[in-house]
Write a structure and sequence with these properties.
The complex is a heterodimer of chains A (437) and B (522). Chain A is 2% helix and 50% strand. Chain A is mostly beta strands and 437 residues long. Chain A folds into 3 domains: 97 residues, no CATH class; 97 residues, no CATH class; 175 residues, Jelly Rolls (Sandwich). In chain A, the strands form 5 sheets. Chain A has a 10-stranded antiparallel β-sheet with strand order 9-8-7-6-10-29-25-26-27-28, covered by helices on one side. An 8-stranded antiparallel β-sheet of chain A has the order 4-3-2-1-5-35-30-31, with no helix packed on it. In chain A, strands 11, 12, 13, 15, 20, 21, 22 and 24 form an 8-stranded antiparallel β-sheet that branches. Chain B folds into 3 domains: 112 residues, no CATH class; 109 residues; 235 residues, Jelly Rolls (Sandwich). Chain B is globular and about 75 Å long. The two termini of chain B are 15 Å apart. The chains are: A mainly beta (437), B mainly beta (522). At the A-B interface, β19, β22, β26 and β28 of A face β25, β29 and β31 of B.
């Protein structure tokens, strides 16, 4: 469904305080406007103030695709836990209190939130502390074989055909994140698990490819009759992504021969390697295949070691909906009734009552991968129409929102009234209303 | 040609053709009758040189030598077991079947069916119907499975050919056709009275052609189909599941919209081959998994309002399994009607997952198999159909080298630690976070720490291997036997008196090669 501003459901007004002037408004026809979003009117129109216009102007709601809000300066925010609400909204934070009825979730963007357990699906623990192996692009001299790639304002740029490589950089289990931006149209490949690091010839490796026709993840092989296998294909074309940019995340679990692909934070899927021998290479190669007035730009590339085991456990799901459950970092799983969060021997622990133990199990937070809460029968999982993407991860769907200079007053259908920091807002999208009056 | 010659001939080949077109729904062999029965079917000896001898097993004596009687021979025949490959009791079906699926697996791969009674630091005690109560030294135990299948067990088989039926191939308009019309020309050289399309033998179904064999396995909305396929001359298997085995009735004839009284294959979507149309007419609404040595695909079979079959390929990553030309593999299909999802595991590894964007197509409860290559053969065995808890990555994914692992029947919970003892139906387990007391009723299986399990010895030269009905295996050194009881010695269990009514096979020469195991002629 293409996001669209509703005519009536929004019902909010932004205060016309001194808003930053680098918000980016993307329209469905591919237009992008940079300026300050002043307010969104009850009829769905967005009021934008731009230095290019003499006075604020209005954009019809049905023309709007999304609004990306300017990143605020300051350190990156992260939390070690992700709380999944029953309606699939996700909040980063840290659990500071837990009893039989509710918990307190401490966040940098909304302070401490008291949440009834009946609306919580699960909490993933130990999510963010992955070891950062590479934070780039860095200096051009840190790369090898950089034919026709240049560094401009800290971004790798190429407007012709050329490759740039970085050997021996990938751990065995890793997360590779990068942003690909383009002018006019992209034509770009990123090879990984690659020791060949050449544009031509056969090799056992993978590559992510984006061009005007689409986006694919492929497995290249030097064995057999086929040179490559298609692992994943996105149904979206590059022009369907806002801002002529895509945030790509590829998670590689060589132990289980699985790859996970995320585009703009949304999981496209997980894909097993079709060939028994998994590529052992540790290098990456960026290949620009640009021509004409095309330009490929890589402003960001990060590589993390990945705790694939914890991720594997987190993908299991709740299981019996009538019981709580704890999955630990070793893969053990205990169903029962979660009692409380306690401190013992200097460690926070979650107490779980099991049908098979006389005393509650006390599991250290540091040893927990995921906690699942039993499903509430009465809940109908309401979802708000305003998609609020949190900077640094997480998403909320709000019923209403009012923006001030530093804070936003929001109503969430499950959490109630929230006061959110303005700096937490990465992107705003508005779902098409059920009633199109 | 495989037909039974008249009785009385000394040497003959035997095969039990699967009953064709049995009327009505068939009841699968979920649990076979535990009462011993002797229906008078003969035993069969296979020799290492390929000869076969029908008759009746009379016992083993020192040597070891085997005593055999045959209607055509006045006196018992005494045979050197070195010349024997296999003895099949009662046409490979045993005279009695064990009811309880619980079992213990030893480090040498032996699988001992029985009820788990007790465990202490030294021994695991198991009550069996075929050997009484056994005390198994703990270091020989690899796995104990009080409730091995997880979920609700629906079918265990194939155990009885009467549970299965051969499907007549159909024309795309739904009418029956001859095999020659249905299949590619290379089948033309086959004689008219060719082998039966499927042969039941020794707890397995063997294909002799391209016709399908099917059973009503009462597959639920969330079902798990596990089976082993073995193949010769390149794998080309077709598995239809959640099938109705009948297309919907055609539209009323001659109405104002010009509806026909037969489905119209001419209306098939582009890309739908006549074979796909015929398959849809054969299986009805269902999914068809096609597996070859090189790829896997899932077809969705539905019918439009005019009963025209619509077959489409579900989009998913197409893995190249690279299975060998001759080999075997364990397949595990997990289906979830409510989420319109099907997941496939092969040899314990996740292969792929399909999600049907148009809703779940399979409305039936049947399961069918076919070999789709005229030059290949397929063997189906170890079929287990259960309900499924819907979790793709099941509890069985947990492994530990130095700790015992307990998996519960809910398919999710698993604990590691030290299994201290089992007593009065409770497993006392020192876990990572607490001492636990777990009823055996809720334990699917216990995997014993690998580093505390002893390596198995090489089998003795005169060792034999018993296959029990429905599933069980014992490798023993025989001492003496009559028709009913075998006295033997097991390297871990010591001396045993084995009730041969539960034995379906004795292997005198055994290996794990698929070519050696491939034997549809008992």
């Amino acid at each position: 469904m293409t996001p669209r501003l509703p005519a009536l459901a929004f019902g909010l007004a932004f205060a016309a305080a001194s808003l930053p002037a680098q918000d980016r408004v993307s329209l469905r026809d591919g237009s992008t406007l940079t300026g300050a979003v002043r307010r969104i009117e009850s009829n769905g129109k967005v009021v934008v103030e731009s230095p290019l216009a003499a006075r604020p102007f209005r954009i019809r709601g049905h023309s709007l695709e999304s609004i990306s809000f300017e990143s605020q300066p300051g350190p990156r925010r992260s939390h070690p836990q992700l709380l999944h609400l029953a309606n699939h909204d996700v909040l980063p934070g840290a659990t500071t209190r837990l009893d039989a009825e509710s918990l307190t979730f401490d966040t940098w963007y909304a302070g401490a939130i008291n949440i009834s357990r009946s609306i919580v699906h699960s909490i993933d623990f130990g999510v963010t502390p992955q070891k950062l192996v590479f934070d780039g692009p860095g200096l051009l001299s840190d790369w090898k074989e950089h034919d026709d790639w240049e560094l401009e304002d800290g971004r790798l740029v190429c407007d012709t055909g050329g490759a740039i490589t970085k050997p021996r950089i990938l751990p065995r289990q890793f997360i590779l994140r990068f942003r690909i931006e383009w002018e006019n149209s992209p034509n770009f490949r990123l090879y990984f698990c690659d020791d060949h690091l050449k544009r031509h010839g056969h090799a056992d490796r993978y590559y992510f490819e984006v061009n005007a026709a689409g986006i694919q993840l492929k497995r290249e092989t030097k064995d057999g009759g086929r040179r490559w296998f298609s692992l994943a294909t996105s149904p979206r074309r590059p022009r369907e992504f806002p801002n002529q940019a895509i945030d790509v995340e590829i998670r590689v679990d060589r132990d289980r021969r699985l790859l996970h692909l995320y585009l703009d934070g949304e999981k496209l899927g997980r894909y097993p390697d079709p060939i028994a021998r998994f590529p052992n290479g540790s290098g990456i190669m960026l290949e620009s295949r640009a021509g004409g007035d095309m330009r490929n730009i890589i402003p960001l590339i990060e590589i993390y070691e990945w705790d694939a085991v914890s991720q594997f456990r987190r993908s299991e799901g709740r299981g019996n909906p009538s019981l709580d459950a704890i999955v630990d970092t070793h893969g053990e799983r205990y169903s029962g009734r979660i009692l409380e969060l306690i401190e013992k021997d200097g460690h926070p622990r979650i107490a779980l009552e099991s049908a098979f133990a006389n005393d509650p199990l006390l599991v250290k937070i540091a040893d927990i991968s995921t906690v699942y809460f039993k499903e509430s029968a009465e809940l109908d999982n309401p979802r708000g129409s305003i998609h609020f993407d949190l900077r640094g991860g997480g998403k909320l769907r709000l019923s209403s929102l009012a923006m001030g200079a530093d804070t936003l007053k929001a109503r969430h259908p499950l959490l109630g009234d929230l006061e959110l920091r303005r700096a937490a807002l990465a992107q705003l999208r508005v779902a098409e209303p059920a009633n199109k009056e | 040609m495989r037909s039974n010659p008249p009785s009385g001939r000394l040497l003959r080949r035997s095969a039990m053709a699967v009953a064709g077109l049995l009327a009505g729904a068939l009841i699968p062999s979920a649990v076979a009758d535990g009462d011993p029965q002797d229906d008078g079917r003969p035993d069969l000896l296979r020799f290492t040189n390929g000869d076969a001898l029908h008759g009746a097993f009379r016992g083993l004596e020192n040597g070891p030598r085997l005593q055999w009687t045959h209607p055509g021979a006045r006196d018992p025949i005494v045979l050197d077991t070195k010349t024997l490959r296999r003895l099949a009791f009662n046409n490979g079906r045993a005279r009695a079947s064990l009811v309880d699926p619980s079992h213990v697996v030893l480090s040498n791969g032996d699988r001992i069916p029985g009820r788990i009674l007790e465990l202490d630091a030294k021994h695991l005690t198991v009550e069996t119907r075929f050997a009484g109560t056994l005390a198994i030294p703990r270091q020989h135990v690899q796995l104990a499975a009080p409730n091995p299948h997880g979920g609700e067990l629906l079918v265990l088989g194939p155990l009885n050919p009467k549970d299965w039926r051969i499907l007549e191939p159909t024309e795309p308009d739904g009418s029956a056709s001859s095999e020659n019309d249905e299949h590619p020309p290379e089948d033309d050289h086959k004689p008219v009275d060719s082998d039966p399309p499927w042969v039941f033998s020794g707890g397995a179904l063997y294909s002799n052609g391209q016709q399908s064999v099917a059973a009503d396995v009462q597959a639920p909305d969330m079902a798990r189909f596990r089976f082993e396929l073995a193949w010769r001359n390149r794998l080309s298997a077709q598995i239809a599941f959640h099938a109705t085995l009948e297309p919907p009735p055609p539209a009323p004839p001659g109405d104002e919209n010009g509806r026909n009284d037969k489905p119209r294959p001419g209306n098939a979507p582009r890309g739908q081959s006549s074979q796909m149309t015929a398959d849809a007419m054969l299986y009805g609404p269902c999914y068809i998994l096609t597996v070859t040595s090189g790829y896997i695909q899932l077809l969705r079979c539905t019918f439009d309002d005019d009963a025209n079959p619509i077959v489409s390929r579900l989009n998913a990553f197409r893995p190249n399994l690279q299975l060998k030309d001759t080999g075997k593999a364990a397949f595990d299909l997990r289906c979830n009607r409510s989420e319109h999802a099907v997941a496939l595991f092969v040899n314990g590894h996740f292969v792929t997952r399909w999600t049907d964007p148009d809703g779940y197509a399979g409305t039936g409860t049947h399961l069918a198999f076919a070999c789709r290559s005229s030059s290949a053969s397929l063997r189906l065995s170890d079929l287990v159909v259960t309900s499924w808890n819907g979790m793709i990555d099941s509890a069985s994914s947990m492994q530990a080298e130095d700790r015992d692992v307990v998996l519960l029947v809910n398919g999710t919970d698993r604990y590691s630690g030290n299994l201290e003892h089992i007593e009065n139906g409770l497993a006392h387990f020192r876990g990572s976070y607490a001492d636990m007391h777990i009823p055996l009723d809720v334990i699917q299986e216990i995997r014993f720490a690998r580093d505390q399990t002893s390596d198995p010895p090489e089998p003795a030269r005169d060792a034999i291997r018993l296959a029990l009905m429905p599933r069980g295996r014992l490798t023993v050194t025989p001492a003496q036997s009559d028709r009913s009881v075998l006295k033997a010695r097991h390297h871990a269990l010591g001396p045993l008196n084995l009730d041969l009514r539960y034995a379906r096979l004795i292997e005198f020469s055994f290996s794990d090669s698929i070519l050696d195991l491939w034997d549809e002629d008992f």
